[in-house]
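Let's do one together. I've listed all components of the complex below, 799 residues spread over two lines.
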Amino acid sequence: MKRSIAWLLAASALAACSEEPSAPAEQLYDCLFGNAHGLDVGQVATAEGAAGEGICVAAGEQDAQFVYIPFLARGSEGAKLSVEITGGGFAPVTGAPNAAVVPAGAARGALGPDARIAPPNDRFHHEFLRRERREFNTRLRPAAGPPPGGATGLYRDVAPAAVPTVGELITFNVSTSCDLPDLRTGRVRAVTDRAIIVTDTANPDGGFNADDLSFFGETFDTLVDPVAARHFGTPTDIDGNGRAIMFFTRAINELNPPDAESIVLGFFWNGDLFPRTEEPRFQACPTSNLAEMFYLLAPDPQGEVNGNVVPLDALRRIAVGTIAHEYQHLINAGRRMYVNNAVQFEDVWLNEALSHISEELVFYAASGLTPGMNVDLDKLFEQERYVDAFNRYVAQNFSRYSLYLESPDTASVVGEDATLETRGAAWAFLRYAADRAGRDDAEFFSALVNTGASGVANLGDVIGANALEWMSDWAVSVYADDAVADALPQFTQPSWNFRSILPALLQRQDFPLAAEPLTPGETTVVTLRGGSAAFRTFGVRAGQRAALVIDVDDGPPPDNLRGSILRVH
Amino acid sequence: MPESRSARGRSALAALLALLVVPAAARAQDCGIPAPEGRFAVLGGAGLVRHDFGDDATGRDFGGAGAWNPAGPLAFSAGYTFRDLEGTGADPSVVRAAAAYRLPALPFIGRLCIKAAAGATRFADDVDQTDVTTFAAPVGLVFGRSFAVGATATLTPYVSPHVIFATSDSRLFGFDLSASDTGIGAEAGVQALFSRFIGAATVWWNNLDESLGPTAFPPLQVALRVGLVL
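Okay, and this is what the predicted structure of the assembly comes out as:
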């Protein structure tokens, strides 16, 4: 603050010692005697980097409440960043809305995934995708010329292959290794226009009957495939049978250890789309099944495999959601390899988010509801089919999102680890981005899938803006949506009223967002990763001001730390 | 006619310069205290201040002061101002006092004085999180000279380089920010005495660290005061 006028330095004999004031003095005096943000309810002030070192807000004529939301704008998690928040002028956080809004109807039951089956083992799934991406990215080669699938996505102009008939036995490799096959025999149980349903001949007793399997095939034809093809693109057809193969196999059940608290529901493996011998665009994967296919959990009512009971009814209810999820992965990988000429697969977080979006899109198609309706609890309970579709297709997404809300500072939208929180956040963020982009869902998601770019860069290309800034705004919306009056559109989530639905889904009386109050005169440390945010609340009495000083490593925040102040009351 | 008007103009200018360069009798105004020899004066006025807080907060001072120049080398002044800082959350109260001791006249320079001043500011909120009190004391020399302007008016320019000591006893948003600093500064001004009326225009500058808070002597201040000699 001492003005640096060069000629004065010559008078250093007179301009003597200056006792060092305590660290935040400059920002605090700036706040008290300088300019302050006079935000109205719903307004947001955001500063990046050093510009966000000192934050000053004024309450105006009425008591006010604010939430400070630091967001680390990095495209990958990277190293943790400790952010020290010190400030004062705070009054207690009292009146609504705050993080603990109790919506009407919160006590309603009937929402939620089927409790008879263990929740999905997302960690396995995520780790699998991560390992798979790492391995198969190296098997893609840049090459000049048109994509191997041509404009149609059909691989090498393959002649239509004979479609298997019901009862036919087929041998598949179920390992996820290009070197060590694990061969299982499956029997074709149903063939529909777009699906071939195969069950492992070694599956546990008490499995799906013919009607169940026909149902899956027909539901795939009429619901999943049309939705996916419209939003993500037509799947490739490297085996020329015009169908996707769904293999219900105990090989998936075997992935779940004894007494598993969560179970693997299925997966798609990139290796099945690679050729078995070297080609200009691809390294070989000798164990490839050379087919558009994915693998699904088999019913196991007696717990024959590792003692894990998989009830038939429960699996019947959730299998279509799993199929929708894996089908997006299949389309995404296939189009990157054979249509988009991509030299990399999609980042895991965005790939997962797209697959959860696929589940959500099936929810909309099945329920008749549409994005942008701000669906709340009352809406869901208007019709039984809404609740049924919710429980089948998106309840797990809500559960994962609630886990993110409980620890937003340690979770990351772009997380590389296999966390449930990341998947919940990535799905909710992608829905937000699609809504904010204001384009047709099909156009938006199709643009994300039909590209050679990946991750944050891919998203940035599609939205035509800095995707990390959108993530930062989304973090604000996590608090503001359906809780803060007059929030600007970019700080809302137009499709879902999470504050209404989540408490009922979780059977709790409050919204699970972790938003801790700041204490005047004390330093609060939040540790952020790339793509994560924190929520710290404080009140300011009428006519007063409050000041926050943000330090990172005893200095100003780095450029990629975006701090937002939202007035909530 | 043009030559005649030009000649008259030159004569007037020469007369004015002649008046200005005629030293008037030594007065206390030479020391920057706005009171004539042996008299008491009351003044009121307004000023502009600029602090380095935020984006260089500006504001206005309103207040009054008294100045007393007893017969002899000593002179005193004291005053109170209310500082209205534009767009800020706090408006401190300011009290200032000064004493000057007049040394014998120096050839070609005029009067030389030793001047010491002190000022305090205070601001407190009503929720007991902020209570800022500052104290600052500039001590230095004053070079001044009075000139008669016409038969009844006196004009006194002066300049006062000084060292300024400051300390603050401050709690701000719940933080203890007490600190002290030493800097350099300067005061320059001109005072005009006409009959019983007195006026003063003053500029203050210093390089105190504003982390001390808003001292009575901000980094930059200009003030205009007018008053009556009693």
